[in-house]
TrEMBL record:
Residue ranges of the region described as Disordered: 166-202
Protein name in UniProt: Nitrous oxide reductase accessory protein NosL
Annotated source species: Cohnella cellulosilytica
InterPro entries membership: N2O_reductase_NosL
Gene3D superfamilies per record: 3.30.70.2050
Length: 202
């Protein structure tokens, strides 16, 4: 066998081995009975605000709000993250963090009042902004430069109740944005066009 053929075969084998060695990361289901946020220790609802990440060594961390996931990254860095996921606001489909489109406005109600919701595509995000009449379109790169502040008027002063659960975690009481005068409709949507629903007990 000619030398160039041997080199080609060896290169092909190495490429196959390397490809087989690539680790696949997948989002895991939310279990409302036991899952609590890795940062704020609140109960995680199986809703559009839940996020999660898996480290390269296989540890999974779940969060009730994208702001809590950002706080985890701030505390722990991002070098060991294998993959991070957010959810599409409309159908709760898991999306890779870097591939999602985001909408931010301080009046958007989210569990920990960071005011950011995620979408699988730009069109859906733009439709949300048009419907609600508020919101700034953002990408994952934009979030890296975002000032992560909580709307404390809508969270603590708005009457959010924290109840200890049997598992030692905490559960959400009222919505984070109740103090802003917004009420969710029966389908979990929003009234008066100013923000997404926070957590409610079921």
């Amino acid at each position: 066998m000619k030398k160039w053929m041997i080199v080609g075969v060896v290169a092909l084998v190495l490429a196959v081995v390397a490809g087989c060695g690539e680790k696949k990361y997948e989002a895991v289901p939310i279990n409302e009975e036991v899952d609590v946020c890795a940062i704020c220790k609140m109960q995680i609802k199986d809703d559009a605000y839940a996020t999660q990440l898996t480290t390269k060594d296989g540890k999974n961390y779940k969060f009730d709000d994208i702001g809590c996931m950002n706080e985890w990254k701030t505390q722990n860095g991002t070098d060991n993250i294998g993959m991070d996921f957010v959810r599409d606001y409309n159908d709760k489909e898991w999306i890779e963090f870097s591939a999602a489109t985001y909408v931010y406005d301080a009046s958007i109600r989210t569990p920990m009042a960071y005011g950011i919701v995620s979408f699988k595509d730009k069109k859906s995000a733009e439709a949300f902004i048009a419907e609600q009449g508020v919101g700034q379109l953002m990408s994952a790169d934009d979030l890296a430069k975002h000032t992560w502040t909580q709307n404390t008027d809508g969270m603590n002063m708005g009457g959010m109740e924290h109840n200890h659960s049997a598992e030692g975690g905490m559960e959400h009481g009222q919505n984070a944005g109740d103090g802003m005068g917004h009420s969710p409709d029966a389908e979990g949507g929003m009234e008066n066009g100013h923000g997404a629903q926070g957590h409610t007990e079921t």
